[in-house]
């Protein structure tokens, strides 16, 4: 006659089954987290590749279309240009535009290859922290603006370029040549970006969660590179920049994972963003050293936010 299970045997069996279920659950949870982390890293790597491609593609085509001007009053021909290339701290280039941080760059480039190679359009890149409601299609309900750091690409068609618009006081003279202050000199890109509606019309979002963008040139200068610096700086130090592109741009980028940033409570994310913007000048003063990003990465690590950094070198040819 077969004997049934005793209570002790049933308890032992249930206990063993519970241990196995716990082990299986822990394994499945670890696997799921690994897959989620891998997907987030893959998404960030894809965004990073897109950013690198966009920056390299546009920056490498920057031009000043220089020419030599001969004048009887001058002993030698003088290098001239009707265009403008400038890079430097955003707070200096984009004064009056809210939420900007890190560095920015603005320039002109050919609109396209081939038959449109001589048609110019304005281009630029800058980082801004703020909501995305201006770039959200009208048919998408927006309950709350997503506050993020975003890399913007400035664009201005050939028809909109104000570089050759004449001043009423000196007809026929390009506005750029008349400018004697940074405010007037930078007006061709600050004016379209100063107001929210115009900002959305003249810029597109290249990528979200780009926390920092630093641009350095072979001539280290915290003020950046301005091909028309001689118009607002009368010192001899401005002469090497006169109508010249830098030979090369070194661009450093710092990105954070979208999923990690989205998991932060709104108040904590705002506090972190404020702290990062406060540390941007500290990182900038370190120059183009490999440790430039450390003040920013240390804060991100303390908040448990994964990040990715990259460096690209873009040669410029006139």
Rg is: 27 Å
Q: End-to-end span in angstroms?
A: 99 Å
Helix % is: 25-40%
Poorly predicted segments: none
- Which H/E pattern describes the elements? HEEEHEEEEEHHHHEEEEHHHE
Provide mean pLDDT, rounded. Answer: 84
Report the strand count. Answer: 13
What percentage of the residues does DSSP assign to strands (E)?
25-35%
The 3D shape can be described as elongated
Largest sheet: number of strands, sense, barrel closure: 6 strands, antiparallel
Separate helix tally: 9
Features of the shown structure:
318 residues; alpha+beta; six-stranded antiparallel β-sheet; three-stranded antiparallel β-sheet; 13 strands; 25% strand; elongated
Concise structural overview:
The protein has helices at residues 7-59, 90-93, 175-178, 182-185, 187-194, 196-202, 258-263, 266-284, 294-302; strands spanning 67-69, 78-80, 86-89, 100-110, 120-130, 148-156, 166-167, 170-174, 203-208, 210-216, 225-226, 248-256, 307-315.
Any overview of this molecule?
- The chain has helices at residues 7-59, 90-93, 175-178, 182-185, 187-194, 196-202, 258-263, 266-284, 294-302; strands spanning 67-69, 78-80, 86-89, 100-110, 120-130, 148-156, 166-167, 170-174, 203-208, 210-216, 225-226, 248-256, 307-315.
- The chain is 36% helix and 25% strand.
- The chain is elongated, with a radius of gyration of 27 Å.
- It is an alpha+beta fold.
- The model has no long low-confidence stretch (mean pLDDT 84).
- It has a 6-stranded antiparallel beta sheet. The chain has a 3-stranded antiparallel beta sheet with strand order 10-12-13, sandwiched between helices. A two-stranded antiparallel sheet has the order 1-2.
- It contains 9 helices and 13 strands.
């Amino acid at each position: 006659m077969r004997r049934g299970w005793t209570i002790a045997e049933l308890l032992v069996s249930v206990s063993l089954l519970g241990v196995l279920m716990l082990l299986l659950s822990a394994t499945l949870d670890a696997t799921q987290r690994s897959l989620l982390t891998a997907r987030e890293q893959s998404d960030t790597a894809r965004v990073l590749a897109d950013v690198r491609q966009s920056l390299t593609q546009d920056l490498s085509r920057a031009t000043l279309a220089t020419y030599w001007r001969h004048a009887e009053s001058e002993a030698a021909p003088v290098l001239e240009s009707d265009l403008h290339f400038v890079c430097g701290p955003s707070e200096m280039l984009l004064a009056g535009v809210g939420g900007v941080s890190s560095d920015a760059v603005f320039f002109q480039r050919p609109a396209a290859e081939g038959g449109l190679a001589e048609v110019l359009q304005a281009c630029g890149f800058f980082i801004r922290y703020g909501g995305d409601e201006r770039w959200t299609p009208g048919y998408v309900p927006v309950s709350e603006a997503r506050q993020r750091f975003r890399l913007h690409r400035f664009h201005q068609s050939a028809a909109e370029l104000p570089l050759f618009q004449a001043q009423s006081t000196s007809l026929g003279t390009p506005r750029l040549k008349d400018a004697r202050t940074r405010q007037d000199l930078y007006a061709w890109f600050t004016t379209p970006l100063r107001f929210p509606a115009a900002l959305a019309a003249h810029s597109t979002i290249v990528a979200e969660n780009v926390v920092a963008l630093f641009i350095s040139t072979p001539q280290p200068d915290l003020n950046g590179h301005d091909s028309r610096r001689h118009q607002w700086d009368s010192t001899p130090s401005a002469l090497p920049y006169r109508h010249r592109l830098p030979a090369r741009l070194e661009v450093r980028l710092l990105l954070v994972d979208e999923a990690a940033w989205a998991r932060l409570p709104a108040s904590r994310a705002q506090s972190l963003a404020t702290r990062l913007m406060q540390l941007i000048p500290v990182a900038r003063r370190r120059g183009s050293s490999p440790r430039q990003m450390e003040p920013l990465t240390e804060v991100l690590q303390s908040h448990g936010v994964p990040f990715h950094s990259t460096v690209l070198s873009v040669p410029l040819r006139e």
